[in-house]
Amino acid sequence: MGGEIYANVRPQEIPAFGVLTGFRVSIYNKKSLCFVKVQGESKRKVGRQETEGCDIFQGSWIRDDSYPGYEYTQCPFIEKAFNCQNNGRTDSEYLKYRWQPKNCNVSRFDGKEFLSRFKGKSIMFVGDSLSLNQWQSLTCMLHSAVPQAPYKLKRIGTLSNFTFPTYGVSIMYSRNALLVDVIRENDRRVLKLNSVASSSKTWEKMDMLIFDTWHWWLHTGRKQPWDIIEYNKVLYQNMDRLHAYEIALNTWASWVESRVDPRRTKIFFQGVSPDHDRFAGLPFDCERWRQPLTNPGVRSKPQVVLEKVLQPLSKRVNLLDIYSLSKLRIDGHPSVYGSGGHRGMDCTHWCLPGIPDTWNQLLFAALT
């Protein structure tokens, strides 16, 4: 490591980082990754679950009094940050909706079938707290499906492991908010945009991996999880965050191409979970909402970047395209009923039971 440190550079000034406005022509790793200009959204869906004439991620939320699929009292291990009913939320309308795709139906989640299908196998969620949100949702859904089955929950450092010994199924969560490596060198946390060598050791030999990253790329100041950025052996004090995210995704994609055996391991990417910290120009606007929105608006820039990175992969990565359906659910956030209580406002994470249960229902649909 070494070389000149670039401070607050604009994307077009970064060496070996070709950029055009809008959708870009970029070459980050000349040996294996080349991206071509795409006009608008990709014509070929990247590993999305589709039946003939039906994209299960396009549809609307329908009121259904048979929901939710479980009660918070049936899941004694829900994180305080997600346990909105237990934290004092009195309204329950947000629990009474199901996702209805436009041109087809999706089956309800079947926890017993899920456990039988993954008997003797290991599943790992890798990402930030939105990944934790989905992991905990899945463990709640499975536990409520087989409440008499013994389970073990073990947490060591950044790894949580929820197992059903009867089925030999492990559902793990590895906290890795950026996917690429952050290594301490010379008393500094160095974000290595070209490396997953350290991080990927945790992912090896899994039967199914569900990845997620985005929200921590935006943090600055004391919440920023690195001190300096290294890219192509050059150090940067700062960098456009969306482009740094894209480089990191390409590094992760190179790992998928070179190390994943699709005959053994299924790969999913959670997609970008939207937040509602600002809505209609107002800050912290998610508390007063009690019903879904009807229009998700434009697709987010990080979601477009993610699809662009997944597009050219030869190994299949299934995109759980949760952005639009979740964007409609401004009512599903903890708001003041998260871990911060009325001193905080959480319009980023999701209540459980809640929206991540639908993510797992669609994950289940993608496996059938």
UniProtKB/TrEMBL annotation:
Domain Trichome birefringence-like N-terminal: 53-105
Lineage, top ranks: Eukaryota, Viridiplantae, Streptophyta, Embryophyta, Tracheophyta
Matches recorded under PANTHER family: PROTEIN TRICHOME BIREFRINGENCE-LIKE 43, PROTEIN TRICHOME BIREFRINGENCE-LIKE 9-RELATED
Species of origin: Coffea arabica
One Pfam family cited in the UniProt record for this chain: PMR5N
UniProt main location, coarse: membrane
Protein name: Protein trichome birefringence-like 43
Keywords of this entry: Membrane, Signal-anchor, Transmembrane, Transmembrane helix
Membrane topology: Single-pass membrane protein
Subcellular location: Membrane
Annotated family: Belongs to the PC-esterase family. TBL subfamily.
Domain Trichome birefringence-like C-terminal: 107-365
